[in-house]
């Protein structure tokens, strides 16, 4: 019974690590190449290969091993270091695509009511 619970816990961790790697891979795939250079990070192809390998390794191997741990570290580094730098360089914004300002701001600046 204890081993069954432990195996279930490891399965959940494996799914979480695969999710982190998949999220990082899709996020890196949709970022611009020049944003990586502007943020002074490795290039886009490097991160796509690393994150794809992390996803593949976390899928193929048991969570108890060195390769899935390396893949997890790579995914976490991308998410907590590279992704915020890319968002800052790209203009980021919040989840609704607005970057602050008042509710009367239009796409080219504040709307003053036709005055």
Describe this structure in words.
- The protein has helices at residues 2-29, 33-38, 44-60, 66-90, and strands spanning 105-106, 109-110.
- It is mainly α.
- The protein has a two-stranded antiparallel sheet.
- A hairpin with a 2-residue loop joins strand 1 and strand 2 (109-110).
- Helix 1 (2-29) runs antiparallel to helix 3 (44-60) and helix 1 runs parallel beside helix 4.
- The radius of gyration is 20 Å and the shape is elongated.
Which key features would you list for this structure?
single chain, 115 residues, mainly alpha, two-stranded antiparallel ribbon, 66% helix, 3% strand
List the helices and strands and how they pair.
Elements lengths: L1 H28 L3 H6 L5 H17 L5 H25 L14 E2 L2 E2 L5
Antiparallel strand pairs: 1-2
Helix pairs in contact: 1-3, 1-4, 3-4
Shape: elongated
Please trace the helix and strand order, writing H or E for each element: HHHHEE
So how many helices?
4
In whole angstroms, the N-to-C terminal distance is 75 Å
The helix-and-strand class reads mainly alpha
Strand order of the largest sheet: 1-2
